[in-house]
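Q: Sequence in, structure out?
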Amino acid sequence: MGTFRTFLFAPANHPRRTEKAFTLGADAVILDLEDACAVSEKIPSRAKVVEAMRLPRTCLGYVRVNPMSTIYAYGDLQETIQAGLDGVVLPKVETAAEAQTADWLITQLERERGLELGSVDLMPIIETALGVANLASILATTDRIKRVAFGAGDFTLDLGLRWSRSELELLTYRNQIALLSRAAGKEPPIDTVWVDLKDAEGFEQSTLHIKDLGYQGKMCIHPDQIAVANRCFTPTPEQVARAQRVVDAFAAAEAAGSSSIQLDGQFIDYPIVYAAQRMLAIHEKIAKLAV
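A: Exactly. Output:
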């Protein structure tokens, strides 16, 4: 689908803010029919999502529908699965049955509307203890799910945790989501939003932390967060140069019959090389976004 360092939320019921959101440099924009829309705005905002997805843009466009447990989910999917939509963000997924139902509905709508089958991405947000407990079965439901996201706001509410600045209370659950995603052969997950908009330093620390935990990107709720998250998830020129040296040196050694070498005093074997190759692949994908 693309490179996902940043998913920016924008309220689906504000066309001007929506139009601007697509110009701010995020890898994907999520038009929100759930938390950003009052009850009175949810149904009327569906048409605004469809209209926005038909406009020219340089990043991917997603819609966050309401949870499958609500009266709005079916109508949200029925109206917004149209040409131009890249994906659906499904909040508060707790069971494989919810993901399977959403996948079935999307498939029928793709077929009815002449869209390529499987072309609409489905990204569940895991936001409860039950969702984490059932994550393996959720991930096994459909190939339409390429990755999941973690939502800490509802998760800490569900477990009665205090969401601290250090986020140490989230470490176990973040690790579990990353581990199960990898075990299921999915992409690395997307991390939760950072709600303290005045604490830019905390946001950057959180972003660097979850990158080291194996996450590929961050959900954002303010334009100022985009550049920071993009930078944190983009390999630096020094890192790219080092990775290229590792790959080149190992290729030369391998051609000479050796499968382990030293480079600048560091022992280099296959896991180090594979990590360097992965970094170069990420660098190439990100470079294409600027073209």
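The mean pLDDT is 95.
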